[in-house]
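Batch 3, record 17
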Amino acid sequence: MHIIVVGLNHKTAPVELREKLHFPSENIEEPLKRVTSLPQISEALILSTCNRVEIVAVTRDIREGTEEIRNFLSSYHGIPMSRLDSCLYSYDSYDAIKHIFQVASGLDSMVMGEPQILGQLKDAYSLTNKYKTSDVILHRFLHRAFSVAKKVRTETKIATSAVSISYAAVELAKKIFDTLKNKVVMLIGAGEMSELAARHLLNHGVKEILIANRTYSRAVKLAEELGGRPAVFEDITLFLDQADIVISSTGSAHYIIRSDDVVRVLKIRKHKPMFFIDIAVPRDIDPKINDISNVYLYDIDDMEGVVGTNIKMRGEEAKKAERIIEKEIEQFNKWLGTLSAVPTVISLRERFEEIRKKEVEKTISSLNGSSKIDAKALDALTTSIINKILHYPVTQLKTLDNTREGNYFVDAVRKLFDLEEK
Amino acid sequence: MNTLFFKIVLVFYLAGTFSYLLYLFKQKPRISKVATIILTSGFVFHTISLIVRYFEAGYTPITNLYEAPSFLAWAIVGVYLFIQFKYRITSLGSFISPVASILTLLSSAFSEEIGPLSPVLRSFWLPIHVILAFLGDAIFALAFCAGVMYLIQEHQIKSKKIGSFYHRLPSLKLLDDINHYSLTIGFLLLTMAMVTGSIWARHAWGAFWSWDAKQVWSLLTWVFYAALLHGRINIGWRGRVAAIFAILGFLAVMFSFLGVNTLLSGLHTYDR
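Prediction for the assembled complex:
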């Protein structure tokens, strides 16, 4: 059995495409069921956030399984493969495990170490439990991923950067506005990081949150989650005068907010200060607006600068995280390998043989001298009993090998007879 | 007697300034407490010295260049202490206390002798007019300091070079609020000082307005502050512009306060 990952993220696909591939969590059941009913796929999880859409699956055949999922993505969303092909990545086995461990730890996120993705992965996992599309392998895999993420978080400083960026945003806002009460925040683009920053600001008493996103439905969804108000993306400049703090994080290639927009809005606002945080790469907001009086603009590098996490430090921490991940992959891979029937059958036989030998020896030594029992006959008898007992379970394990049921049995056998690797 | 007190005041103010500046760099709450105690004691001694001088001289001691800067310093410290106890903006002290110290030092450079009061000044208008004017000036000094702090803090935030001052100075909003309120109150006091002054002038010099150098300069600063107030209320001037205005305005105030008396001559010049 193999783990595969097929998907795309903010690095490989533009926001327009990511949006089209989005699976809303409220009707995730149907696509999940469709993926698991694909001939080569036995377990599946769908992770769909603003920055990534990934399907994690368990398959018998890497090549065919990957192809099935790729085709599913294309046909389910009605996007031709030619359009999708260059944006999709696929990983298997070692690389797939590594990838998901990295995603869970926030190493693959736009802002390295941001913690929200872990929560999203947990949500995605609980949905697979609800709709019963995960089993032994994914259970173990995801739990492993969660504990790896926790380990990375506690043992490296990778997460502090992201958290402290939103913290620094709050602190800067307070240095500008004194209090955040009665302040209105506008989110442009509903990314992981901006959502995190928005939550921080909300915790500090911000009055209202406006959310604009290219896909209006997602703005509505996030607005519901955060208790905010959705706004139509094309109208952001119309709403801009209401916003004291603007957090932008879209995948747009051009500036969304221009200098003359801000100049115009500032007049309407009677020059009340505005604080812009642009965490998009490439940037969403014209850097020139920082020159306007009463307007403050911080891009992602500026925020990093404030936090004092330089790239070198992040690089070192990332290396540390990679080492933790490598170790964990090794362990998980070992377990995954034992899941196929052959090694399990071998260790099962070994375990039985061990017991048999011990007991035979005991019997012979206790009967020593007084008996005429043939040691050879005793050996033959016990061996054949074991073979008879093991015959049906072993054939069963072998025929069910590499199926969902089979994995379940193998796992059970290993637990029942204490065959776990020591 | 009053001059002895005055020397004690000077020592306290200098020590207070030193502690406030130390606090700005060290940021230890204990230092700020000590600084507040020193400055408050200085203020108490200053009040006593003014009262003593009032009785020794027989008139409100704000008539010459020994008395006037010291009186302004007293008003500034008083206004500041009121604000610190009310709003707990300790970092303002690091900017205000040097201003008070400089003014007190300036006083000490002039003759401390109590001379005979010019007959023109023997009027109940003297304390009313001058106290209003000095209180107004003290409040403009506050706006000046808040303006300097605003420019420093704004520069830190704009340039993204978050230095040590970033954490030590209050928020831009607060500094701008100080600018706004002190401007409004200061302008009101200045206006009242000018009105009472011209009424007094009618009695003393025979005309409400006589194009005296101090009158002209006061009018100029009045117009200047009126423009800033108008800008704030109607055009939405705030922040940096307002801070720069407040700084320039206070410099004009200082000139009409000191420069006019020392460099120009006119009806307001009573001692030379």
